[in-house]
Structures are given as C-alpha cells and as structure tokens.
C-alpha cells in the first residue's frame, strides 16, 4: 500500500502525536509543530509577571532591570503579564461596558459598521467571518476595531502640521464613530481606553529599546504617529457539542501571530488565551487580575533578527460565560522603515532581513493572506483572514500532520569503501562529476548539500540499502565488503558510459528506444521541464511543498520558518529533485491525503520516466532525484520505483553488451533473473502491475535487439512475439483507471509490443483489441492512448490496402515473412501521430534510424 512504510530505525525521531499548523505571515504560510497534548496552565516561570510600575522610575538602573526581565521573556516565550500598568480600572471597565453594549445589539445595527464597508479594515467583523488557518474552525469571535487617528492622540498638537508622508499612512475612518453614535458613550469610552494604552505603549517601547541595548529614545520618533489600533473582542461561549461535531478544531480566534511591534491585551476573567511554547505545547495564559498580557509581534521579531519571538497564540472560550478581550496593537509610523537593529547583529549573527517599511510589511501580510477585494492593508492587527480557507481550496486539510520527520542519518553511510579499489575507481568518476556540479549546487544551502552528500553515491549502494531496509536490516554501511554480492550489484557498479564520457547513466534502454523512434539528437530536457513539478501541476501549494522539501533537507528543524532559504528557481529548475523530496517528506505527513500523496507519486514517476527517457548524461539533479528515492523509510511505492529504475538500468547494461546480444539465443538473462529475485517482494505484490509490465518490456527489448544480429532465429522471434502478446494481454486486463494513471511511457511499451506484432504477425487479433482499448479508454483525442490507438488503426488499414487480408485472421501462428513494408507503415503512422511535425516528409531519413535497421530483420 502506498502508506506502507519500510521501517528503518531512524536516528532522529520526532515523537508521534504532533501536528503541523500552517499559519500566515508576511512571508507567506509558515509552519509550526505542535503537540497534540491537552493544553496546560503556564507556570510563572514560563510566562512571567513583570511589574512595570518600575518603568516610571527615575532611576535608569531600575528601568534597566525591567528591561532585562522583558528581554528574558521576549527571547523565550515572547509573552509576559504586566502588572502595575497604571491604566485605571474605570477606563478599562468603561471600554468593556461599551464592548458589551455594542455586541449585544441586534445584528442589523452592527451591520451598519461592518468592516466590509471599510477601506482600511476598521469596524465590525461578524462571527465566523474569518479563519486564521486551515486546521482550525472559523473564528467564533466577533470584533470591532479601529486605527490610529491623530485627532485623538493627546501628544499631537496640530494635526495639520504632521508631515504628509506620515499622514499618508493614516488608516482611521470616521464611520466607526458615526455608525456607532447610537451608543452615547461608545466613542468616548473606547477612545479613552485607546489613549491610555497608547500612552503606556509609548513608555513601554522605551523599555524595549533598553532591552535591546539601544538608547532609550530609539523608537520614539518611529512611534510619533504609530499604527496603534484597538480591537474589542467578543467571544461567545463555545457550546460543548459544537466542538464534538466540528471536523476542524473549534476556536474562538484561531492560531496566529500578531503582526506588528507588540500587543498589550486586557482579558476578562473567563480565560481561553493559549500560547504555544517552543516545545509545541499549548499553555493556558490564564487571566491574572490587574494585568495585561504583552506579546511580541512579527515586525519586532524581524528587526531583532529573530531574537525576540513572535509567538503563536489563539483563544478558545470554553467557559460558560461570554468572554471579552481588549487588545491594543502597536506598530511604527506607517512610513517608517526599519532594518535589523544594530544591537541584534554581530559577526556570528548577520542580519537576516532587509529593512522594510511598516506599510510594506503590512502589505506583504495582506498579499500573503489572499485578501480579496480589500483596497488596503489587512485588518488592524493580528492575522488577516483568509477569504478562501486553505482547507476548502485544497480539499485536503493539512490538519494533524504527524511530525515523525525523516531521520537524519548522521553517520556517513557509505564511508568505508576504501579497501575496494575497483569500487573506488568507479565511484571516483561519479565523484568527479559531483565535484564539477558542486559549483552549480552551491546555490543550494549548505544543509542541503550535506544531506545530499549522503546520497551522492551510486545507485547501486542505495539499491542495496533499500533492499536492506526491505529485509528489515540496518542501513548497509559496507556494501562492498559483502561477500554475498548479488550478481546484479556487481554489474551495476559499472556506472560509467562505455564510450568513456565518465558520466553516470543508469538507464540507456529508453534512450535507445527514443533513438529508435525519434532519432539520436533529440533533447528531452525541455520536456522534462515542461512536465513541471508538484506545485505547477497544482498538486500541492508552494509553501507546503517548500516545507516538505525543508523537512527532507533539514530534518532536525522541527519548526521551519525559513521557507525562503531555498533558491527561488529551485522548483522550476530541479523539478525531479524538488518533487521527489516532497514525495518523501509527504510520507511523514499522514494528513496529506492518500489521493494527494498518490498524485505526488505519479508526478515523480512521470518525471523519473522523463529523466530515464532522456539521453544521458543524466544531470546531477536528476541523479539526485533518483537517489533520493532510496532513502530510509522509503515506502513501498518508492521501492517499486527504484526497482523499476534498476530494472531498466540492468537491461540497458545488457543491451550495451553488443557481443553478448549478438551471440545470445538465450531466452533467459541472469541479470534480470537476479533482479527479480532481489526485488521479489515488490515484484510479486499485486500492486506492482506496472513493474511486471516493465519487466516483460525489458525482455521484449532484449529479444528484439538479439534479433538484429540473429535475424532468422525462430526461437528469438517466437520469444519476442510471446512476450509482446503477454504485454498486450496484460494491458487488456488492466483497469481503465489504472491505465490512465500510468505515465506515458507505458503507452510506449504497449505500442512497442503492438508494433512488434504488426511487424511479424499483422493479423494477430491482439492488435485490433489493443487498438480498441486504446481508443476507448482515451478521455479525449489528445490523449496519447487515442493517438496510439489511431496509429494501430491506420497501420491495419494500410496493411489491408496493401493487400494483406486482415479478415478471417484466426491464427496467431501466421507469421508474415519479410513484411518490411508493414514496418514502414507502422513507422509512418506512428510518427504522424506522435510527431506531427515529421509528417509529409518521406525520406527524411527516419527509416534509416536504428529502427529501420531492425526492419532488415
Ligand atoms: O482574546 C485573546 O485572548 C487573544 C486575542 C488576540 O490574540 C488578538 O486579537 O490578536
Ligand atoms: Fe493576537
């Protein structure tokens, strides 16, 4: 089964019971790994209570003491409680009362100030109108928000004198107040709360400056007219049965990080705020009377070079009461641009980020969250809503991704080959090649290089590895000291091109076939690129794909944020490697649905097939892609794919031994017998139809090539016909759905077998049957099955026109001697169907390609 995992003890195992959460940030989606354990209360060590009354002290030392406490909290959990804040209780209570008055109104009254009517995301947001991320429910929360208005800022004397570039960033809208004027105290009380918070925030930010070893007034100018907003959050109690019935985790406000500098949140006593610690454990940030909760936002995290952490949080109101919270969000002046702070860089910690303006920052988040229709920035503060929830769009939520990440194998697996000279010599050529590509892959991050270095050995060793895994053994660390070499492995060590190009070429076979069909010069690399990758094929979205690649590349990174680490052109230019890495990592992500996993698999197969169809030398990247398929914990599908690649590789090797092929009238090839023994478990599995199909095809090729030298061998001819019929019979038995899932080269195999019958026995009823199946199953005229069906039809028609009776064809035994003309019909028609650009060019020399050599059989 696709989910069957060939288990090998991994060196690093992230325990079961984790979930990966996709969150939105200005950089696009980011991922956090969370424990599936029940949330527990945070201890005072985890989320400290800091008495900030001391920030008003005249003593710098005292203020610095607070700064240190804040720094400790900011660099660990990113959250703290502040007591001694000095905001009068009555101010808070009045704001709370206003919030209650507002939310208790009938919906049509709240609609008057609906955020949908706002240019800048001010106003009311109804319940269930936002979803913070794909794995959690719509937010049950209702909220009302408004943004900085200089007219209400007591530190502004004259609004008119504010410089225009600052004014341009103002996002206040008067309709917040005109549309709520029915509540007489609303504006006054809410604005009073905002003003108190603003004043406190301006004091607090000075302590943040100290905490960052900056002059205390460092941020003052940047917050003269800050993006300072308040939200009134109203969380009705979540009914218990709602949580039971829901298919996503029910949340009052979904997991998110706050966007800007910091947030100061007043919450009532009902509880529900949860904070994600670094171990992926949810901590209840229980209400503490007389405190605000303060947390770091993404912008501050960025300008501190990630020293201060913007921590994921959410709220769930499972109390029996309505819950309210009143967050105040502080950002810089909108026009302000800030880079990584000087105190946060040193020789070991270069700046990770470019300077960015506050407005650009907000805008990025806007873009990252797919907000449609909005004319400006995302809502005030926290995560912007997704108008199109991921889960709905993808149809396969990434909920509850287990984080059993692929283990990194720190021990060099193939270290000890020194004693085996010939192995060394052979590997040397590969390594040489790898060295020259080293420059090319230097764009790939260091960690990836080292990861790949483990894999940069021969296909053969990896094949042994996977076989070892298959037999429940450990990784084979000394494959070449194994005295019980399979014959396959010894032949497979010959990885170099006999022509002496020193290039690896796992598969010549299909190249030969290509050469026969299309002439030797065709370069398929465009086609490989044209196939795209798992993202361009819309199987999974880019952020998830990049995350998967990172899981593969940086298995130790259980929290991956830096999806921008991969080169931008990685997926386009290295589709096989990229898609293969996604495939492997997806195996560790059970909630990537089976269907999606299968699509990824098919994509990789298609790409792998195109790669093997390409003339050698295989590019480094292609080789990597093939090698990657052999990692520990490979699935059954991976094993099948590897087996198939090796099968072709061995066949190619045989085909390359022209003397042997010329002399052989043998119907058995030891290499293939050995291959079949080694891969017996895979081969015999009922799911391995395609593998058996390929196996017969390889025999067919071997017979046909032998026939070139021994044109009159009835044994070989009989064998070629027999195996062609077997292929076509098997094809007849396949489910349509299975056939349509197969990569194109299976259709090549089918047509090759059918053409073989056309060549020797045009009246074989299997030709007509295959033709019918091909045309019947093709979903449209463009499909390769349809085109090949037409090929067979035309061949038969031409043969009939040329006087070969197709009627009364009852016997398979009829062999038409010297039917070279049939071969030509076959060829013309085939080319016309598959390569329309070649049609109408008789004598273009196609017949004189390798294929026409065979017509001399
Ligand atoms: O209400 C709470 O506890 C959290 C609210 C919050 O995180 C926000 O509004 O950004
Ligand atoms: Fe928040």
Automatic annotation (TrEMBL):
Residues 225-332 form the Fe2OG dioxygenase domain. PROSITE patterns: FE2OG_OXY (PS51471). InterPro entries: DIOX_N, IPNS-like_FE2OG_OXY, IPNS-like_sf, Iron_ascorbate_oxido_reductase, Oxoglu/Fe-dep_dioxygenase_dom. One of its GO terms (biological process) is small molecule biosynthetic process. Gene3D superfamilies: B-lactam Antibiotic, Isopenicillin N Synthase, Chain. Pfam families: 2OG-FeII_Oxy, DIOX_N. Residues 375-394, 478-499 are annotated as: Disordered. Belongs to the iron/ascorbate-dependent oxidoreductase family. This is Fe2OG dioxygenase domain-containing protein. It comes from Talaromyces atroroseus.
């Amino acid at each position: 089964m696709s989910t069957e995992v060939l288990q090998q003890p991994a060196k690093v195992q992230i325990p079961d019971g984790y979930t990966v959460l996709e969150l939105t940030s200005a950089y696009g989606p980011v991922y956090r790994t969370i424990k599936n354990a029940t949330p527990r209360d945070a201890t005072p060590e985890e989320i400290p209570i800091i008495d900030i009354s001391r920030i008003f002290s005249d003593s710098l030392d005292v203020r610095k003491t607070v700064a240190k406490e804040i720094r400790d909290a900011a660099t660990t959990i990113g959250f703290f409680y502040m007591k001694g804040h000095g905001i009068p209780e009555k101010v808070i209570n009045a704001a709370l009362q206003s919030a209650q008055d507002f939310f208790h109104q009938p919906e049509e009254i709240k609609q008057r100030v609906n955020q949908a009517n706002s240019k800048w995301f001010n106003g009311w947001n109804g319940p269930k109108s936002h979803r913070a991320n794909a794995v959690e429910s719509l937010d049950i929360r209702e909220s009302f928000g408004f943004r900085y208005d200089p007219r209400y800022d007591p530190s502004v004397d004259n609004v008119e004198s504010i410089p225009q570039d600052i004014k341009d960033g103002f996002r206040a809208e008067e309709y917040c107040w005109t549309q709520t004027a029915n509540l007489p105290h609303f504006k006054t009380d809410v604005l009073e709360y905002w003003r108190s918070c603003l004043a406190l925030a301006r004091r607090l930010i000075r302590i943040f400056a100290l905490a960052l070893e900056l002059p205390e007034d460092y941020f003052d100018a940047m917050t003269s007219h800050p993006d300072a907003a308040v939200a009134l959050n109203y969380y009705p109690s979540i009914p218990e049965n709602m949580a039971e019935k829901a298919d996503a985790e029910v949340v009052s406000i979904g997991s998110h990080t706050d966007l800007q500098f910091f947030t100061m949140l007043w919450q009532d006593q009902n509880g529900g705020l949860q904070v994600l610690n670094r171990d992926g454990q949810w901590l209840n940030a229980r209400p503490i009377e007389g405190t605000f909760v303060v947390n770091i936002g993404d912008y501050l995290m960025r300008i501190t070079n990630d020293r201060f952490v913007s921590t994921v949080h959410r709220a769930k109101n499972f109390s029996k009461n309505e819950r309210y919270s009143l967050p105040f969000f502080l950002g810089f002046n909108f026009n302000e641009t800030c880079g990584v702070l000087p105190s946060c860089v040193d020789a070991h910690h270069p700046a990770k980020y470019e300077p960015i303006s506050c407005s650009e920052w907000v805008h990025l988040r806007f873009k990252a969250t797919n907000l449609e229709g909005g004319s400006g920035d995302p809502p005030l503060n926290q995560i912007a809503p997704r108008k199109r929830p991921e889960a709905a769009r993808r149809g396969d939520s990434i909920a509850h991704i287990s984080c059993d990440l692929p283990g990194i194998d720190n021990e060099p697996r193939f270290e000890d080959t020194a004693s085996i000279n010939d192995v060394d010599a052979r590997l040397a050529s590969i390594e040489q090649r790898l060295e020259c590509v080293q420059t090319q892959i230097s764009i790939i991050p260091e960690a990836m290089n080292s990861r790949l270095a483990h894999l940069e050995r021969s296909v053969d060793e990896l094949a042994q590895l996977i076989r070892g895994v298959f037999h429940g053994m450990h990784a084979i660390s000394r494959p070449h000291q194994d005295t019980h070499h399979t014959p396959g492995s010894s032949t497979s060590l010959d990885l170099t091109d006999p022509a002496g190009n020193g290039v690896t070429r796992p598969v010549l076979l299909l190249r030969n076939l290509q050469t026969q069909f299309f002439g030797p010069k065709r370069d398929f690399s465009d086609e490989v690129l044209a196939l795209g990758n798992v993202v361009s094929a819309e199987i999974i979205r880019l952020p998830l794909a990049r995350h998967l690649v990172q899981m593969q590349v940086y298995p130790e990174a259980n929290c991956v944020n830096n999806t921008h680490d991969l080169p931008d052109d990685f997926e386009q230019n290295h589709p096989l490697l990229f898609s293969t890495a996604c495939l492997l990592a997806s195996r560790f992500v059970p909630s990537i649905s089976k269907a999606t996993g299968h699509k990824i698999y098919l994509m990789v197969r298609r790409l792998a097939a195109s790669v093997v169809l390409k003339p050698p030398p295989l590019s480094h990247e292609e080789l990597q892609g093939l090698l990657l398929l052999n990692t520990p914990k490979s699935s059954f599908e991976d094993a099948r794919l590897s087996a198939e690649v090796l099968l072709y590789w061995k066949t190619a090797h045989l085909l390359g031994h022209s003397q042997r092929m010329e002399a052989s009238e043998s119907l058995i090839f030891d290499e293939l017998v050995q291959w079949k023994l080694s891969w017996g478990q895979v081969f015999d599995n009922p799911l391995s139809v395609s593998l058996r199909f390929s196996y017969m095809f390889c025999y067919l090729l071997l017979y046909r090539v032998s026939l070139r030298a021994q044109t009159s061998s009835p044994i070989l001819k009989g064998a070629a016909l027999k195996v062609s019929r077997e292929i076509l019979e098997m094809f007849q038995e396949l489910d349509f759905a299975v056939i349509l899932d197969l990569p194109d080269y299976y259709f090549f195999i089918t047509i090759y077998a059918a053409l073989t019958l056309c060549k020797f026995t045009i009246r074989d009823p299997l030709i007509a049957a295959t033709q019918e199946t091909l045309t019947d199953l093709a979903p449209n005229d463009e499909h390769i099955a349809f085109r090949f069906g037409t090929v067979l039809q035309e061949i038969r028609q031409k043969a009939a026109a040329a006087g070969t009776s197709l009627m009364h064809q009852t016997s398979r035994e009829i062999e038409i001697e010297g039917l070279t003309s049939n071969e030509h019909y076959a060829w013309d028609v085939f080319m016309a169907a598959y390569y329309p650009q070649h049609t109408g060019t008789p004598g273009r020399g196609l017949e004189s390609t390798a294929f026409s050599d065979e017509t001399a059989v």
